[in-house]
Amino acid sequence: MTAMAIFRSRTWLSRSFSSLSSHPLRVCVVGSGPAGMYTAEKMLKAHQGAEVDIIDRLPTPFGLVRSGVAPDHPETKIVTNQFSRVAQNDRCSFFGNVTLGSSISLSELRNLYDVVVLAYGAESDRALGIPGEDLSGIYSAREFVWWYNGHPDCRNLSPDLKNTDTAVILGQGNVALDVARILLRPTEELATTDIACHALAALEQSSIRKVYLVGRRGPAQAACTAKELREILGTKKVQIHIKEEDLHKSPEDEEELKNSRIRKRVYELLSKAATTGPSLPSSGQRELHFVFFRKPDSFSESAEYPGHVSGVHLEKTVLKGVGSGKQIAVGSGQFEDIECGMVLKSVGYKSVPVPSLPFDHKNGVVPNAGGRVMSDTSGDPELIEQGLYVCGWLKRGPTGIIGTNLHCAEETVASISHDLEHGLIASPSTSTKPGREGLLQLLDDRNVRAVPFSGWEKIDCEERKLGSLKGKPRVKLGSWEDLLKVAV
Amino acid sequence: MSMLEAAHEHDIELEGKDEMSSSGACEGSLACSTCHVIVMDVDYYNKLEDPTDEENDMLDLAFGLTETSRLGCQVIASPELDGMRLAIPSATRNFAVDGYVPKPH
Questions:
Q1: Which residues contact residue B9 at a Cβ distance below 8 angstroms, ignoring those fewer than 6 apart?
Q2: With an 8 Å Cβ cutoff, are A384 and B92 in contact?
Q3: Which CATH number is A126-349 given?
Q4: What is the pTM of this model?
Q5: Tens digits of residue pLDDT in A293-322
Q6: Minimal CB count within 10 Å: which of A108, A315, A332, B10?
Q7: Which CATH architecture has domain A3-123+351-487?
Q8: What is the pLDDT of residues A406-419, one digit of tens each?
């Protein structure tokens, strides 16, 4: 029986036996990470007549909860239980392996559904735009995270962890801390997590012993949060290096800290770690260095290993106030170098536009008002794209935690509900949009093998089975081929 | 029983709580802040045990944090808390739809 036929019979069943109105509001959510799932959940709840389809380009749902959250943070993944219940709702269907922009265009989707919500996040990276950025051994943190989390697009990243004892991480946010921690944690501790097997093997052979976390500004501006900082400062067998002189606070710093509980608690943790100082140097200890007030100027190329990075050339910075309590880093003209054989850029994710989607290239987001997509970045409130909404990183930029999307989804769904009430979206009773039926027909015509939620459940089951043989919660299927084979 | 579980028992809509589970997104493991509640009376707030570093770490990130905020999953019911009132931060408070009706393009 084809997937198409299975969907058709399920739809028939739900029509015969459910109390769906004969004209359901047809909603399509693009992206099944936290933004998409919270949006779907709230739409189903707010509109009892709504039928919600969630599409994702991967055969597996949950976005960065699966491919971003670190393997040694399993509690952070518990939210997938809640998301699974959303996908299993009678009025909700998941379609994996369906890519916006290639399986189906945005215009086609808008013709099929009354409401389209784009929640596909940010799958690219901010570039530094400095010389040497293309040298091998330089990766974005996003790629490295996908690699150790078994994302099928990065399974062949093959970062060389054996040619050097030093890795430099540019950025000091939680993602930077994650990659530092994965590089430095004793591998016995990682072996019982769901880290990808190829990554564990590489880490077990890694010669990296020193990791630098480099930030342009000071400890009062470090972007990480207390929980993650506390954790990395407590990593077994790792010496922490923070220069006491970097902890000096200007009056502007004091003001910033006074106004932010998050920054204050982070500063205090860094301050305590600096004054405690590294324990007596002992051999075999790994080192984590927090480097402040340095911005990357260029990367040097290795003489012995042509085409490969051998160091980062950094410019010292000073802070300059730019009003409203914000300070930026400005180059001072003094430079220094850190030798290293690997660089991870953790300076921000970036969203990718699709054809016919208005896009603000400067900020890397879709121009919107409360989640309603605007036709351009002019800010003219008249220019709204009817029936098109955004949620999550595509709407707000790549910041925040999983829970931030809960509130983001509330706002977007409130806008949708308001627009429905005020006739700004075609009312379901007069709409002729075919919704799910139309989507399935189109995908079938194009030979796209959509993966239903039950297909993910088969993948999940197989991964957990493989994991139980190795004392891990799961062993992720790492290739597109394996994922699709098991899903069908 | 935590406040989160009590809310579930009495069918109260606690943000982040899923209808099937008796706790928030992380199901009580101090890995999120979706069960954030505001203790309305400072006297009751003061009766509670101080939050641990772990709870404070999560509170740092809570939406609409106040001086008397706690995580619902960490507030355990006891007789001396009888009468305590809890408020739930409203997201739509800050994202007000101000009545403006945009014209479709």
A1: B1
A2: no
A3: 3.50.50.60
A4: 0.91
A5: 999 999 999 999 999 999 999 999 999 999
A6: B10
A7: 3-Layer(aba) Sandwich (3.40)
A8: 999 999 999 999 99
